[in-house]
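Section 4.2 – Deliverable D4.2 (structural model, holo form)

The reporting period included a commitment to supply a predicted holo structure for the target in complex with 4'-deoxy-4'-aminopyridoxal-5'-phosphate. Inputs used:
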Amino acid sequence: MDMKLMTPGPTPLPPQVIDVMGRQVLHHRTKEYGEAFDRLCKGLKYVFASDYPVITFTASGTGGMEAAVVNCFSPGDKVLMISSGVFGDRFADICLSMGLDVDKMDVSWGKAVQPEEVKSRLNSGVKGVILTHNETSTGVRNDIAAVGEALEGTDILYVVDAVSSLGGMEVRPEEWNIDVVVTSSQKALMCPPGLTFLCVSPRAVEAAKRNKASFRHYWDFRKAIDFMDRELPETPFTPAVNLVMASSQAISLIMEEGIERVWERHSRMGEMAREGVKAMGLSLFAEEASASDTLTAIRVPEGIKASDIRKHMEQRHGIIIAGGNKSLKGKIIRIAHMGYIFEEDVLRALNALEDALVSCGYGLEKGRALETARQVWDMRREKI
Ligand code: PMP
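Output (structure tokens):
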């Protein structure tokens, strides 16, 4: 059976990316590698829709989050940390372990932060605001543009975790006043895990230069930028060479499709998933106005076990989805539709979910979900 990973990372790889991963390794100080890394650096600017430099570190997304904190802030600095789920909480933990003074703003899980509330919480001591764009644990999209607008004209550094959105949902660092956007390779960017990418504004680079109090070595933006500014860009330390080549290949596929069309495909898949799920009589976990395009979180109906649904979908249909994290374990299931995933895959996942629910004794009208999702697809089909 053809298995399909519809989890929020890792995500399936395009065949062209698999091909690159299997190639002989290059030395990272050669011209051939430098040219490939140069293509990646330029491609990253395209997917981040920004002219700012994009730093690559060999690490998972969490490493990128720590890199943002240790470069932009020093121990004792006050940051407003907005959290509406597991990944916001993780960012808060990172800030606390780096000795920052964390003002944690907890938003109910399933809801998005209200930009006016962020504004009212700002005071003269705040040096940074940190926000998760797409809270993967709940399927909520925060309005990072509106929060950026609230920060306009201030000296506050604005850091955004776009790990599960970048490449699938619109992000515009310059227009939205974002100083650091963090993402990683294994989600909408269609690459295996192992690289984290940070798009850094001139203000963030300046902050890293001024920052004498924070301890850092591997994560130092200053070193990373110096090495990137060479005739052909390099990294200070040995990079995950094959992942760099693979990411460059994956990004060239995004460039072929066009980033705006990629965002539109994700938005279409999100709507298909939500409408299909509702047609089964299920409820979404995230408030609908703030629902993510890359991931749909669904409440598990009373009396049914999340693990039974997932097992059935995997064993009978080859569709692998995620369960809930932390306090949401057993309460929700999460279907990701990001990266190398297309409308047909969403239909396949809905069909598998419907079948799993029926096998668990849940009453529904068979076929309605698929028909509804197909109608959404038809309505939103690209007119070429
Ligand atoms: N932030 C978000 C929003 C995420 O979805 C994830 C990964 N699920 C992370 C951070 C952490 O990334 P990683 O697992 O690559 O360290």
